[in-house]
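ok so I'm stuck.
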Amino acid sequence: MLWIIWLVPVSMLAVGVIFSFFPPKHINDWYGYRTSRSRRDQESWDFAHRYCGHLCLKNSFILLLLSLGLVVIFSHLSDAVLAMLTLVQIIPFLVVIAKTEKALKATFGDGDSNLS
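replied:
not stuck anymore, here's the structure
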C-alpha cells in the first residue's frame, strides 16, 4: 500500500504536463480547468490552463521530493497513516485552485461589473 503516497504527486505532475503542454483549445464540458471564471471567455480559459499548469508542475516536484522523504521516514507505519498522509498531500491541489481563481479574478475581474 506504499504506492498510495505517490498518487497525489504523480496526478499533479500529470495535470501540470497536460495543462502546460496539451491544454484544451476551446472551452468545453469534458476536459480542462472548468470553473465559472475560467469558462467566462477564451482568454480566461487559456490563462487558467497556463497558470494552473505552471503551479501544478512546480508543486508536483516539491510533492515528489516530500513523498520520497515520507516514504523513507514513514514506510514502517500502517496503511491508515499512509492514507492520511496522502490526504494531507491534497492540500497543495486545493491551493493551486485557490491561487488560479485569485489570479483569474485579479487579471479579468469578477465579470459582474459590466452588468451595471
